[in-house]
Amino acid sequence: MHEVRAVVVKAKNAPAVVETILVPDPGPGEALVEVITCGVCQTDQHYQAGGVGEDFPYLLGHEASGVVAAVGEGVTEVAVGDKVILNWRAVCGQCRACQKGQPWYCFDTHNATQRMTLTDGTPLSPALGIGAFAEKTLVAAGQCTRIEGELQDHQYAAVGLLGCGVMAGIGAVLNTAAVRRGESVAVIGCGGVGTAAIAGAALAGATTVIAVDLDDEKLATARKFGATHTVNSRQADPVAAIRELTHGFGADVVVDAVGIAATFRQAFEARDLAGRMVLVGVPAPGTTWEIPLDEVFGRGGAIKSAWYGDTLPSRDFPMLVDQYRLGRLDLDGFVSERIGIEDVEPAFEKMKAGKVLRSVVEINPVETTPVGTGR
């Protein structure tokens, strides 16, 4: 059993506080990971607000890089000493989706069987089955994707962000929309996920990449990640602007990274005939939109939602880490600030105010992580 510091929220809307928790040694199929860095994601705040469930207390954090400190019986995916990115889609290989050859939709993803607890024995619910605002965490071995090759110490903060929001945005473009070279892409909403979608569009070879937001600072950031045009929707009708920038036709792909009825409608209307729209922004419970079926039929194309960007970590993480190494994907640009484990609650406020793409908690410096057999 390991006593470590971790960020816990004990009740709905209670502050995120640092507590001592107990982490078991790994059992069969499990891995103990010493966390290097972990990004502060809006999903963690959803847990704090009770928007994901009421299974308090929650152990927050999930966008993480780490090093494997120990493995349980039967683990072959990773070895002690491996540097890894943690993910919440450890596919089972047996469910209907996996059997159909679509493991990125796995309906029965794996988590650790044993529970981490407070020191009084109260079981913790780890965010997305990870709980990485902690010096060490226990996960299913399949939640670890090995980082091949070496990275510089500061780069682990960047690649860890592939664990959730950045991957959701990039995956919405590369996987869900399957953007092709030369296509036009518009992204409505330029927070962390929307900005990642813009980076994904540039990586895919889109020649027209249109960023839409209410905030000029976010639009300026979008240009740094590959937007060729920007539209401030306070000042211009985004549908008309997108059409004007695409020769009057509309974009081949429009991504709604906000997830409200108004932006969904804008994305639907800003598509070209037979264009694709992708919803990656998470709607609030009960959000509705009255669908004009004649327009759905008349426009053709596809309306899709992106579940974590239809991501398969074993396939996508290594490819994107390689693109990062080659200088084609600016993951460093998503790291707005580096903070300590005590600073998660203030980071939530900065995130709500739109002041950061990602705050990243630095927990264990790379040079002090345990060294094992590695690969």
Question: Features of this protein?
Answer:
375 residues, alpha/beta, Quinone Oxidoreductase, Chain A, domain 1, Rossmann fold, 2 domains, 7-stranded mixed sheet, 6-stranded parallel sheet, 26% helix
Q: If you had to describe this structure to a student in words, what would you say it looks like?
A:
The protein has 375 residues and is α/β, with parallel strands linked by helices. The protein folds into 2 domains: 222 residues, Medium-chain alcohol dehydrogenases, catalytic domain (Quinone Oxidoreductase, Chain A, domain 1, Alpha-Beta Complex), CATH 3.90.180.10; 128 residues, NAD(P)-binding Rossmann-like Domain (Rossmann fold). The protein is built from 11 helices and 18 strands. Strands 3, 5, 6, 9, 10, 17 and 18 form a 7-stranded mixed sheet that branches. Helix 4 runs parallel beside helix 5. The radius of gyration is 21 Å and the shape is globular.
The CATH architecture designation of the largest domain is Alpha-Beta Complex
Shape: globular
Q: How many independent structural domains?
A: 2
**CATH-level-4 superfamily name of the largest domain:** Medium-chain alcohol dehydrogenases, catalytic domain
Helix/strand class: alpha/beta
| Radius of gyration over C-alpha positions, nearest whole angstrom | 21 Å
Low-confidence stretches: 368-375
Distance from first to last alpha carbon: 26 Å
**What is the CATH topology of the largest domain?**
Quinone Oxidoreductase, Chain A, domain 1
**Beta-strand content estimate:** 25-35%
The total count of strands amounts to 18
Helix proportion range: 25-40%
Mean pLDDT: 94
Output the number of helix runs: 11
Could you name the CATH class of the largest domain?
Alpha Beta
Compressed to H and E, one letter per element, the order equals EEEHEEEHEEEEHHEHEHEHEHEHEHEHE
Largest sheet: 7 strands, mixed
